């Protein structure tokens, strides 16, 4: 069964058959100043996007059962994603060692983390190197962690700015990071349980004085449920992270991206 969760919260206006829902459109559009309509068909698993570029209130019409539709209003933020369609909005990079190049690009496109030039990312689970390649290409510095090796393209194309720790992240202690540039962000892209990994990541982050946030891919294993997302959010909140967001990844249907940072 597919796990579905909301990208952003909206208000349900009403439910009903198709003609009833259509009769509500004009009035809703006027009342909320909506500039575009998005159609989502959960039965056929298809969608027809309205204008996704502008910010502001939009209408969603969602087919939730064969004859039942829901009409809602939500605030659209520029960069909201369409549902999973197997296509990445990030152009592919032939030299990047893996599709995680696009995956991390999608996270950046959605969350727009406030990262300064030359800031340092600890890229946990970096091999074969797609995410690292994305970060280096965008001018950031990377400390990669993985028991497996990174493909040659990474060092060939970026002779500077990359350090590799050939180890298991569970064995990583702050003493191993002493003498290295201070870490500003963590990227975590490991095929493991997010709930199992997050506590140790939060502990590590609490010891890294300059670390402001985490971008984590979460695999939708068969037993993953909406309650697990709530638990991840609670863990982050209890560790003082005030901005906690999640997004689907348009190119990957079996995972989503979890983003936490501190906002002053
Ligand atoms: C989905 S791949 C990561 C893809 C990578 N981010 C890229 O851009 O190419 C998962 C990686 O996690 C690594 N991994 C698994 N267990 C790990 C651990 N305990 N510590 C660090 N890396 C681990 C695997 O070796 C594998 O390279």
Core attributes:
elongated; seven-stranded mixed β-sheet; Rossmann fold; 7 helices; 264 residues; disordered N terminus; binds S-adenosylmethionine; five-stranded mixed β-sheet
Q: What can you see in these coordinates?
A:
With about 260 residues, the protein is an alpha/beta fold. It folds into two domains: about 10-75, no CATH class; about 100-260, 3-Layer(aba) Sandwich (Rossmann fold), CATH 3.40.50. About 25% of the residues lie in helices and about 30% in strands. The protein contains seven helices and twelve strands. It has helices at about 20-30, 100-110, 130-135, 150-155, 175, 195-205, 225-240, and strands at about 10-15, 35-40, 45-50, 55-65, 70-75, 120-125, 140-145, 160-165, 185-190, 215-220, 245-250, 250-260. The strands form two sheets. It has a seven-stranded mixed β-sheet with strand order 8-7-6-9-10-12-11. The longest helix has 15 residues, at about 20-30. It starts with 9 loop residues before the first strand and ends with a strand. The structure holds S-adenosylmethionine (SAM).
Give a nutshell description of this structure.
The protein has 264 residues and is an alpha/beta fold. It is 27% helix and 29% strand. The strands form 2 sheets. The protein has a 7-stranded mixed sheet with strand order 8-7-6-9-10-12-11.
């Amino acid at each position: 069964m597919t796990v579905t969760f909301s990208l952003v919260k909206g208000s349900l206006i009403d439910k009903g058959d198709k003609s009833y829902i259509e009769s509500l459109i004009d009035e809703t559009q006027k009342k909320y100043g909506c500039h575009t309509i998005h159609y989502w068909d959960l039965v056929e698993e298809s969608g027809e996007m309205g204008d996704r570029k502008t910010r502001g209130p939009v209408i969603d019409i969602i087919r939730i059962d064969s004859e039942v539709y829901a009409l809602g209003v939500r605030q659209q933020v520029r960069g909201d994603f369409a549902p999973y369609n197997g296509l990445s909005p990030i152009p592919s990079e032939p030299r990047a060692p893996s599709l995680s190049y696009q995956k991390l690009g999608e996270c950046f496109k959605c969350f727009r983390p406030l990262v300064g030039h030359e800031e340092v990312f600890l890229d946990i689970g970096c091999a074969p190197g797609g995410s690292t390649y994305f970060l280096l290409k965008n001018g950031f510095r990377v400390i990669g962690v993985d028991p497996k090796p990174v493909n040659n393209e990474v060092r060939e194309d970026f002779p500077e700015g990359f350090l590799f720790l050939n180890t298991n992240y569970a064995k990583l202690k702050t003493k191993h990071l002493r003498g290295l540039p201070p870490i500003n962000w963590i990227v975590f892209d490991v095929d493991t349980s997010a709930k199992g990994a997050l506590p140790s990541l939060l502990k590590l982050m609490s010891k890294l004085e300059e670390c402001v946030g985490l971008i984590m891919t979460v695999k939708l294993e068969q037993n993953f449920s909406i309650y697990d997302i709530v638990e991840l959010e609670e863990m982050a909140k209890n560790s003082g992270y005030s901005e906690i967001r999640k997004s689907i990844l348009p190119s990957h249907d079996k995972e989503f991206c979890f983003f936490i940072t501190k906002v002053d």
